[in-house]
Amino acid sequence: MEDPRLLSAFIDNLLSRLFCLVEEKYNLYKGFEGDVTFLMRELPMITSAIDGQLLGHDDHILRLTVDELRHVAHEMEDCIDHIMYDASLDQQPWYCKYIKSGRKRKSRCQLGEEMQRLRSRLEEALQRQQRYSVPRSSPSQLAESSLDQHVPRDHLVGIDAPLEELLVQLVEAESQPKQLKVISIVGFCGLGKTILARELYNSEVGKQFEERAWVSGAHGDPGKLLSDILCQLHKTDLVNSNVDRFSIDLCNYLNNKRYFIIIDGMVSDQWSIIKSAFPRDVSSRIVVTTKIQSVANACSSANGYIHKMRRLDEKHSKQLFLKNACPGEYSDYLQPDSAAILKKCDGQPLALTTLGHFMRKKSWPIGRDCEDVCSQVRLYDLQSGDDTMDRMHQVLIHDFASLPSHALKACFLYFAMFPSDHPVRAKRLKRQWLAEGISAAIKFMQ
């Protein structure tokens, strides 16, 4: 069955070709305005449904629908290629048509019938999915902190330096004006943003604030975000209301109080909506963790601070891997040859921890085992049934599905064409994107 991630990007490629038909105003397009317009409206809805499956809205009916859409999408690509080929040929001089006449061309009537058939198949697939789908409750969000919870302090590696850096930002300096400061911690999933924020929250400096709250921003709902903060501070449930009402209530409650609030995993630019809820004339602190740089920039634009998460160096990477891979105490002469895994993980704490746990369950991590896991890590991920591997897999899928456009997803997936651990020539990659029409989709999105 087609991987939904591949189909989602593939459908976006079809959209880019439809954009070309519209923008270039090919003569042949004039006979298919209704069909092309219908496809341009429907295909984004399909990609949204596929993203829903990736983010956890998963059921068997949707999987079957995705499989059927795969076949329709490939036939649509063939049909669009025929239309674009014939349209471009009609615009060529007569001698070019003579040279290229070896390829059998479809008549306008045949192309029209093909477009109608594909339109009918697409409508039937979507109606079938709606007819047999079962109502389901909203899925739980995959929080970025799903792998960060319940990590003992002595198991943390390489956190002292960034923690000290951020503690300085929490402290109220006499030379600074008494204003609200928003500290953003930005970086990819699995770098330890939530762990770092939790250490700040539980530190002695963090406990000195008069009011404290920890909420999740992964749902992307400003009203729920403010409601959650109010519930933690008030210790009571609130009646349903709108964002403006929550903002006024929270602002009144926090007035003249020094507060410390952590918003974990913010995924959209909610700050412009909720910032009026936080009084700015007291030396309060808000910490936002996010994987999106633009969100961090928006939150910390005025009197703020942005901390970019960095990968672990080689020393800390080896230390973290061995803590998870080797049972009990380890000594220098017992340390395995972990160079292959350290190179593969490239300082990513999530990858180091996951592979360390996996190796610990297998056997003592000798050099050959490390190399074997590195060369077949994807196979182990799919077949091992290991909970840690599965959680890492889900975090990576969530990272991919949350990319802002399907054009970016298609560009990202093109790296699978190249061998692992080898440099990729930028010009070659760009030519591949141009040949597939992905650049047109990117231009349209911009």
Automatic annotation (TrEMBL):
GO molecular function: ADP binding
InterPro entries registered for this protein in UniProt: Apaf_helical, Disease_R_plants, NB-ARC, P-loop_NTPase, Rx_N
Boundaries of every NB-ARC domain copy: 162-327
Domain of life: Eukaryota
Key words of the record: Leucine-rich repeat, Nucleotide-binding, Plant defense, Repeat
Residues of the Disease resistance N-terminal domain: 10-100
GO BP annotations listed: defense response to other organism
The family this protein is said to belong to: Belongs to the disease resistance NB-LRR family.
Name of the featured protein: Uncharacterized protein
Species of provenance: Panicum virgatum
